[in-house]
Amino acid sequence: MDEAKLGRSPPYAMKLVRPGLYIGNAADAADEETLRKVSITHILCLAPTLSRASSALAALFGPPRSGQSSPAAPPFRRLELSVKDDEDQNLLDHLPECIDFIEEGRAKGGVLVHCVAGISRSGSVVTAYLMYKEGLSAKDALASLRQASPSACPNDGFLEQLSIFESMGNRIDERNTAYKMFRLTSLGRAWRGGEPVSPKFADDPNIGSRRSSANNLLEEGEDQLGGLPGDKKVVCYRCRKCRRAVAGVENVLPHDKGGGQSAFDWKKRSKSLDSGAIDDECSSYFVEPMQWMNSVHEGELEGKILCSKCQSRLGSFNWSGTQCSCGAWITPAFQLNKSKVDESWT
Q1: Residue spans per domain, the chain
Q2: DSSP per position, 305-321
Q3: In the predicted model, what is the mean pLDDT of the chain?
Q4: Continuous segment of H or E residues that includes residue 267
Q5: Least confident piece of the model among 2-11, 46-55, 140-149, 188-197
Q6: What is the CATH number of domain 209-267+280-345?
Q7: Does the 3-173 domain belong in CATH 2.60.40.10?
Q8: Is 115 a catalytic residue?
């Protein structure tokens, strides 16, 4: 149903993207007459403060086009998510819930996805849905959305997250390195900003399926240390003192190397030190926060990482970040010193 048939004009902006899927703004969410007319049963709100304040909506956008209030609120099912139109906002973790809600809404009648203006937040979520549903790239999904809603324009941060979503096969894959790094960076930013965070700690490699593939290597006589001859590959890292498995190779987060010694010039080293040969190789593994890291669970900003078995110091963590020996700044940082752990490979 197009705008002419609805007899609607600004500030109303609801557009049909696919059968049963509409994108719009806060005014559209308050227009009950039109919602009923197009058989909307579900409303996905990415600006919940406006959605809850119907009186404020009426004052801001005016009454529905009919000019009459409905005798009873229609039976809409709502999903309200607190999402800011901010480049640093974590939208990725909301996508599975949004996609499921849109699928349910389309199956039962119709769904409106809206934010305040119907441009960035709602545009990002609908783009992600088209990627998931139709197997499109982020670029093609956004182009398709703009055929229906030319004003759709995700902010740069959301575009980056859609790119990560695409790299995961248009699904959330918690094993994906790019996703892990994004989520950790997002948590670190929230932590430094004083926001409540609930870190998702990676599984302990000594528990469950990881134990059989990593910790039992010693018992099977397949564990070796040192280089990686032939087709051998690292499967985990162990405390050098007690041999407890502390991380799997999938828990290590790569980073681009920094500028080496030049990155430390601000420390005003003496000329004698500057002239010496400095190894720019990384001296630590940077990993996800792990379930066995008791000091991280205690909620401190920074501290030591101790082996949960022998209490040897393996490294340190800092939610504000730390500088790797290669010069790169890692934020937040959970580092295991290479001198304190051994590679186990098979």
Answers
A1: 3-173, 209-267+280-345
A2: EE-TTT--EEEEEETT-
A3: 79
A4: none
A5: 2-11
A6: 2.170.150
A7: no
A8: yes
